[in-house]
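Bug #77: duplicate submission created two jobs. Keeping one. Sequence:
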Amino acid sequence: MKKTIFLISVIAISFSCTQTPKETAAENKLDYTQYVDPFIGTAFTGHTFPGATYPLGMIQAGPETGNYSWEYCSGYVYGDSLIYGFSQTRLNGTGCIDLGDLLMQPFAGEKRSDLRSKYDLISEKASPGYYAVNLTDNDVRVEITTSPHVAFHKYTFAKGKKANVLADFQSGLVWTRQHLPTSVIENEVNFENDHTITGMTRRREWVDRTYFFVIEFDKPILTQEKLPKQDQREKAPRYILTFDMKNDTTLNMKIALSSTSIEGAKANLKAEVSGWNFDATRENAKNEWNKYLSRIQIEGTDAQKTNFYTALYHLFIQPNNIADVDGRYVGPNRQISQSSGGKFYSTWSQWDIFRAAFPLYTIVSPELIPEFINSMLDYSEQQGHLPVWALWGQETYTMIGSHSVPMVVDTYLKGFKGFDAERAFNEVKKSLTINTPDYNWRLYDRYGYFPFDSVRVESVSSTLECGFDDYCAAMMARQLGKTADFDFFNKRAQYYKNLYDPSVGYMRGRDSKGNWRTPFDPLMLAHGDSDVGGDYTEGNAAQYTWHVLQDIPGLLSLMGDKKMAVERLDSLFYTTAKSTNTLSDVTGLIGQYAHGNEPSHHIAYLYTYLDESYKTQELVRQICTDFYKNKPDGLIGNDDCGQMSAWFILSSLGFYPVNPAGGEFVIGAPQLTSAKINVGNGKTFSMEAKNLSIDNKYVEKIELNGKPYDKKTINYKDIMNGASLIFYMSATPKK
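Kept job's structure:
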């Protein structure tokens, strides 16, 4: 679809327009992709991309408009003037850089020294599984679609001009221009015949990984010109390929990838896109996207639907199945392994997605959960611990905690089958007791926290986040009857209390002698980067003090009585004080609350614990209105593999998992008049918000299954049993 630009808030638009009528019985045939705008989040700090991708697929093929900096984690920023080319893999909404494999740039006519091209902004279109643009300098119309392992490019060249493609095997997304020449460690390129190129690349940026490829053209290669190296350290070539077009203007190209072998890439190509029917491949991708997008059916204006379904689209771009069609993959042991379930999922941004994205997967795609968990367990048995932040089957050791643990435990506590619980607990326990490059558990247990003179950065954040992982392990141990393990992990889950300094009212760093960090500024932002340092992760004490997901009542009791806890929480949201430093990750500020980064995501819901839920309702409206807009710069922070989007989806439905393990969702305030979720087994969960409007943002009363409901949470089992949840909205806060 064309880029949709809205200059005022979507919520305001939604309530000022006449609502669309309810969908008919043909809802399952409705094209939900029409409401997805892949350009949302492609500017500012969203770090999303508009390329063609398949749900949970290996391929994310699309344009690159830049490289060599944090702004280009996805290789694309909306509004840039030039397109460098079209690569086949991409990260969605992350704050780190990798991928951008196999850059292809078509051009008509004679070779130029600079093949970057201006493009017709009006012609640039994107929808799930499809991307298109006109390259004005290069006289080419580019269209791209995809299957799980195959990128399908269609180039239409200016009539009467030579048809060429720059095939750049050295290119990739990197942090700095200086690193590009050394990022490729090993490369092979084989021209098998005049239609086919095969090879492999071993590349190191965020992770050290190897991919194999096969590239097929529907026209013969007439000539191949190998270009001079731009740097003598480069290991991979660049070619100008010129094609015998036989009086045609359209060149089709298919690129299949594999983590195992060239033969694996060929098998993927044969199984998924054996012919040259571009439109059929595009239609197949569109149909697959509709299977996932149709899981939630909402009522509202087109503006509401665009915001909502784009968020749902971002959720299912990842994790990515990197196994071949025969189930073989390369994991952290770097050997070819066979997946028992046929798939192996990677691109696990655990520090982000354990909070809301994974609980949302358990609602809208429960059939995927056993595959996700078995992939994590397979990974753990090879790596020695559950994934921390895994990309293409390799470990990045990025961010803190071991947040695969709450994902595994959440799955177990919700009663999922299809994986071995004893096996799962074994990997959970290993991950929290065997030392890794990040964590010395003996140090943790000796002091009951990570001392800042031993753990130089992120000591407070690491203690708090590991404490939640420990709580999760304790809950699983208790269910399995493992008393000793329960006692051990439950004790650890209380370590957060050792870092609360009542004299200042914040979580504060301590050294190995028990001394508090001085000087202490609760608003000073910290980062794991050694250039910034500090005791917190992409945040400060004002934000991280609330990061006790497992024991909110216990945290609030540390602050004194309810009145004192409310005052402390108010001071976060309503302060006018500013941090003395800034971080690119800390955006979307309401006072010192930072919605642009994940550690803050649960905090707006804490007023519900303090019997002031009307403040939660006000904040949810403000965040949804101000920080989620139908614009390229409409996301206030990195989408982080769907976590930012998941917060919006769940909050729009009226609830959020403050404790994201076990199935309790704290009730907030819906932002949609109604929604239905196909929860499987022929059951539907429905939500309705009566009298919802711009002014009516407060919840007056709630009914569950036709009966008054006054609980502060709704349970996962209620949702999955096909409940009916009705909110009655009012313009007057209920105090």
